[in-house]
TrEMBL record:
HAMAP family: RecF. It comes from Oceaniferula marina. The lineage of its organism: Bacteria, Pseudomonadati, Verrucomicrobiota, Verrucomicrobiia, Verrucomicrobiales. It comes from the Bacteria. This is DNA replication and repair protein RecF. Keywords: ATP-binding, Cytoplasm, DNA damage, DNA repair, DNA replication, DNA-binding, Nucleotide-binding, SOS response. Belongs to the RecF family. NCBIfam families: recf (TIGR00611). GO terms for biological process: DNA replication; DNA synthesis involved in DNA repair; double-strand break repair; SOS response. The gene is recF.
Length: 370
């Protein structure tokens, strides 16, 4: 079976709006080798973005996923890179021209990731990401942001924090590693207290940074979420966001207090890995009391707020990757969402149907040749 994405975009509307903005977050093209369902594929993206349309299982999500991996070395649907390798292949390759520079990510199951920018191998993930772009991913499981566990909201904050600040990314990565190592020691029947104490110091150092940074992020996000909710819902639903630290105000004290429990349970019970973001609509817990429509709108608002904050704080426009999120929204909310996306941003949108769409974006059809 041979897969193609037809790069010749079909003009969706005859008159295209001329927007006089700089598309500094631009992905001009994408080339894939042995990635998910694609043997080999190449597609050009217009500066303002495109609607990627096709029937189910044609590879639309895989295209957006590849863009996210190329730009952020992160897949929103898989924590393990190996899952993205086309079945029976030794590895995958993604390449593309982004921000007028050629970028490549190769992943081989045996040798791991090789990253290149303009044909130069980049040694560190941080260096590769520093020259890259910013991404907002909106997918149909975003409802989990409101209904799901705290882990989903922590991932939301971390995806934002890591994009905004390399220091955040560094503390975040180190915290995860220290937590894992400390938990292994706590699980051990023969407790090695001096080693645990050494990890405790590191846990406090990186954890305290994360607590402070996440609290600040939530404070910055709140006005953006309120604004986006108003834009998408069209009414004055009062939304609230509150950061609740999983280690309280004082991590040292929390770890002292949980000393016995940790040893009994064999794991670290206080720290940013237990952080929560409380979401409310009209003063009530959004997961328990908001209607499904309100919950969906809040989830969208959280993602739009992420984009607005990236733009303000980083001074650059993120690329918006919208994966099939329109199915559950009525036509008014779909078009309100399209309007709420910033004019100057590149938007890549997957959908199975474009009949409702009023926006003037080019269309790329994805289909498999059988
Ligand atoms: N590692 C892999 N190797 C080969 N094929 C894969 C791999 N991972 C996923 N696929 C297949 O790729 C196809 C395309 O999946 P994808 O989710 O990109 O489609 P889609 O067009 O977004 O579909 P939908 O509209 O249903 O969401 C599916 O048939 C899926 O089973």
């Amino acid at each position: 079976m041979m897969w193609v994405a037809k790069p010749q975009a079909i003009a969706y509307k005859a008159c295209r709006q001329v927007v006089n903005l700089s598309y500094d977050a631009m992905i001009a093209n994408l080339r894939l080798m042995n990635f998910r369902c694609f043997d080999a594929m190449s597609v050009d993206f217009p500066a303002s973005g495109a609607v990627i349309v096709g029937a189910n299982a044609q590879g639309k999500t895989s295209i957006l996923e590849a863009v996210c991996v190329l730009v952020r070395l992160h897949s929103p649907r898989s924590l393990r890179m190996g899952k993205m390798i086309q079945i029976d292949s030794p590895g995958f390759g993604i390449a593309g021209e982004c921000w007028q520079s050629d970028r490549q990510v190769r992943f081989s199951a045996r040798q791991g990731v090789e990253m290149k920018v303009d044909d130069e191998v980049v040694g560190k993930q941080g260096d590769y990401l520093a020259g890259g772009g910013l991404v907002v991913w909106m997918g149909n499981d975003d409802l989990d942001l409101v209904r799901g566990s705290g882990r989903v909201r922590r991932r939301y904050l971390d995806f934002l924090g890591c994009q905004l600040d390399p220091v955040y990314r560094d503390h975040f990565n180190r915290y995860q590693r220290v937590l894992k190592a400390r938990n292994l020691l706590l699980k051990d029947r023969v407790l090695r207290e001096p080693e645990i104490a050494a990890y405790t110091d590191l846990l406090i150092r990186h954890g305290s940074f994360l607590t402070k940074a996440r609290r600040e992020l939530v404070g910055l996000l709140l006005p953006e979420v309120v604004h986006s909710q108003l834009e998408v819902s069209g009414n004055d639903e009062r939304v609230g966001l509150e950061y609740v630290a999983g280690a309280g105000d004082d991590m040292v004290k929390s770890l002292e207090m949980t000393h016995e429990r940790e040893r009994r349970l064999g794991q670290t019970v206080a720290g940013p890995h237990r952080d929560e973001v409380r979401l409310t609509v009209n003063g009530m817990a959004a997961a328990d009391f908001a209607s499904e429509g309100q919950q969906r709108t809040l989830a969208l608002s959280l993602k739009l707020a992420q984009g607005a904050l990236l733009e303000k704080q980083a001074g650059r426009m993120p690329v918006y990757l919208l994966d099939d999120i329109f199915g559950e929204l009525d036509a008014d909310r779909r078009n309100a969402l399209m309007q709420a996306l910033p004019d100057g941003a590149q938007k890549l949108i997957t959908t199975t149907n474009i009949d409702w769409m009023q926006d003037e974006l080019d269309v790329i059809e994805v289909s498999s040749l059988k």
